[in-house]
Design brief:
Layout: E1 11-13, E2 21-23, E3 27-30, E4 35-39, E5 56-59, E6 67-69, E7 77-78, H1 80-84, E8 90-91, E9 95-99, E10 108-111, E11 115-117, E12 121-126, H2 132-141, H3 143-148, H4 160-164, E13 167-170, H5 173-218, E14 226-228, E15 236-238, E16 242-245, E17 253-254, E18 268-272, E19 275-280, E20 289-293, E21 301-304, E22 309-310, E23 314-318, H6 326-334, H7 339-345, H8 352-356, E24 359-362, H9 365-408
Parallel strand pairs: 5-11, 6-10, 18-22
Antiparallel strand pairs: 1-2, 3-13, 4-12, 5-7, 8-11, 9-10, 9-12, 14-15, 16-24, 17-23, 18-19, 20-21, 20-23
Helix pairs in contact: 2-9, 5-6, 5-9, 6-9
Length: about 425
């Protein structure tokens, strides 16, 4: 998306490095001078009089996702008693929320209704001469600077002092409205484009799963005579195929404990339930190998042609634990919905015994190889298409962020 924008007639040094030059007539103001800043709180969760039949909207920080929120988005409410007897605060409609900690730190939201929120969120009630939409976009444009202030470990974040002293570039009120109107229009167009591309990715992933499922359960010959497998998830299979429990096809071997402090410098990838998580000097698998999530992302399937170190939140299968074609087996496991096993048993992890007793379609080793080769070829085309669309989405997001930053700092004239 290329658009030619004009610049303002004259610029001046803002005195703030990340803001750079701003148009003459614009000012730099701290957030505390443009409105009231309050930090939220959470009523005690064991006191139902704070929550039951609540009428006051209460937002967790996870809902602060760089978008406008309407009351229909709210799923949690607190009572007046909960508000009065806790650190929770309420801000008026058209206030701006800024997430201060965790995964959403630096994200903003514009609320169209009065609401309270948790202690990981700061609410900004803008003064009458300040357009809250402009502040919403300004804070979005300041995201890299906000994130640079984070402190702490896994739940790193910022505090109220940092929020109040954030410096933003401020034009006169009429210009704020123009900028906000412009960004409302442009970001709506960009967001619609991103949404369409994300839906296309979902369709491609569904196509990929359908392709794999059909190949591993029906084979590659469309004219093959079929018979019932007697297993719901498999359906019909070619007449010459068998149905076997996994324990007669492969054995799930436990991964080994490897705390961070025990890892040695090396080039061997360490695999957790959801894929690579680091490196080590030694492997505990042969190659190729299938990694199956046991805890956390239980049922997740990863396949690699290299030897790796599989940690104790996983199972693994290599050539020592199966005589089948491992890539074919990986595809079969991928569509076998192993996570359903844990949902059925209520156990927060993947039971090896339950997986071993699950039925799988079982063709000859020659057919296994043919299916694996076919799926490698076909899924690689889908994966490349998904990768291309993901790149396009990232470029749209980068353009959106740059457009917001340039607009709220006066780099382009609106």
């Amino acid at each position: 998306m290329k658009t030619k924008f004009q610049k303002y007639p004259k610029y001046k040094d803002s005195g703030i490095e990340w803001l750079g030059e701003i148009p003459e007539g614009w000012e730099v103001k701290k957030v505390k001078s443009i409105g009231k800043v309050v930090v939220g709180g959470t009523p005690k969760t064991d006191n139902m009089s704070y929550w039951e039949n609540g009428e006051i909207s209460w937002l967790p920080s996870g809902m602060v996702q760089n978008k406008t929120l309407i009351r229909d988005d709210v799923y949690t409410f607190i009572t007046k008693k909960g508000l009065q007897e806790s650190a929770a605060k309420i801000v008026k409609e058209n206030s701006v929320l800024l997430a201060m900690t965790g995964a959403t730190c630096g994200n903003v939201a514009l609320i169209t209704f009065p609401s309270s929120f948790n202690q990981s969120v700061a609410g900004i009630e803008c003064n009458s001469e300040i357009d809250s939409r402009y502040i919403y976009y300004s804070l979005m444009g300041a995201n890299p600077k906000i994130l640079s202030y984070r402190m702490g470990g896994a739940q790193s974040g910022i505090n109220k002092y940092i929020v109040k002293n954030l410096e933003l570039s401020m034009p006169r009120y009429e210009t704020q409205l123009h900028v906000a109107d412009f960004l409302d229009e442009k970001t709506k167009i960009i967001d619609a484009m991103i949404e369409k591309k994300q839906k296309l990715i979902e369709l491609l992933r569904e196509k990929r799963t359908s392709l794999i499922t059909r190949a591993v359960t029906k084979g590659l010959d469309p004219n093959a005579r079929m018979k019932s497998s007697g297993v719901d998830w498999i359906g019909e299979i070619p007449e010459e195929w068998e149905v076997r429990r996994l324990k007669f096809i492969a054995f799930l071997q436990y991964g080994d404990s490897l705390p961070n402090e025990k890892r040695e410098n090396g080039e061997i990838e360490v695999f957790g339930s959801n894929g690579p998580i680091g490196f080590h000097s030694k492997a505990n698998t042969k190659s190729p190998v299938i990694i199956v999530g046991r805890k956390g992302s239980f049922g997740a399937i990863n396949f690699t042609e290299k030897e790796v170190f599989a940690i104790d939140t996983t199972y693994f299968i290599d050539g020592r634990f199966s005589k089948s074609h491992l890539k074919w087996l990986a595809y079969s496991l991928l569509v076998a919905k192993l996570n359903d096993i844990s949902l059925d048993t209520g156990v927060p992890g993947l039971s090896r015994e339950s997986v071993h007793n699950k039925y799988f379609p079982f063709p000859t080793i020659q057919v296994q190889k043919q299916i694996a080769d076919f799926l490698d070829h076909e899924t690689s085309k889908i994966d490349k298409a998904i990768e291309l669309i993901e790149t396009q989405i990232e470029k749209l997001k980068e353009y959106r962020a740059l457009l917001i930053f340039n607009s709220v700092t006066g780099k382009i004239k609106i």
